[in-house]
Design a protein that fits this description.
Shape: rod-shaped
Oligomer: single chain
Number of helices: 2
Order of helices and strands: HH
Strand content: under 5%
Distance between the termini: 52 Å
Amino acid sequence: MPGRPKNVFDLWEELKRRRVVRVVLIHLAAAYAILESSDIILPRLGMAD
């Protein structure tokens, strides 16, 4: 397969070049913020178990 990464470092560089790493980190941060805010808000609305 042409253009295939030869080792883990090449794969990591390709993921960084395509901005996959940045997108994953943004999604993780957003998920963390949603979970933390729902942990605060839902009990106040009486929706916690």
